[in-house]
Amino acid sequence: MLVVEDHPGNQFIIAEQLRMLGYDARIEADGAAALAVLAPPHPFALVLMDCHMPGMSGYEATRRLREREREAGAGHLPVIAISAATDSAHLDECMESGMDGVLKKPLRLDELSSMLQLWLGGTPSSPQRPDTALPPQFHEAMAEDLAALRRAFAAGDTASAAHHAHRIRGAALMVDAAAVAAPADALEEIARGETASDHMRVADLLDELQLALSAQAAS
Length: 219
Prior knowledge:
Distance between the termini: 32 Å
Radius of gyration: 18 Å
CATH architecture of the largest domain: 3-Layer(aba) Sandwich
Order of helices and strands: EHEHEHEHEHHHHH
Number of domains: 2
Helix content: 55-70%
Number of helices: 9
Structural class: alpha/beta
CATH topology of the largest domain: Rossmann fold
Number of strands: 5
Strand content: 5-15%
């Protein structure tokens, strides 16, 4: 199975969930890399595709995959979207790009298992016990995203701010860190609404996010 996900923490968690369910996974960090390894013949039976990634999005990667399949007369490879987004525009774009299903972050083990059984059938190899310790890369990635988020707001780059706030929120949801997800969600909403001129509220939310991330890393 191929997992396309740009956040190191999410990569670890999803791979661990798949291992618990008895599936092997290869991880790629962006859409272009995914298309490269999906060049035929490839060994994958299904793709879990993050939608919001730098460079080539999961939507675009799936569109190009479907075009390749049509041109080559190849079989249909199931692609399942994985994203913290739930709005109708996201769902419409998933379907328009040729995705076969949608899973919401945080991925729940039972929902993930049901989706995989729906498309893959059969029985995976023996499930494994979970490894609950988050790797250092998770906390490093969160700190890097927070620093980038601060720079984006300082520069008035709302698109970049929305991207990094979304990454932090999605990763926080994956580990049930509500105290981190809440300010990240508010900052993403501000950035997407292009109301970043409310400097005091942005500063307060960034400080709240910093404190929440520090508490999570220390726990």
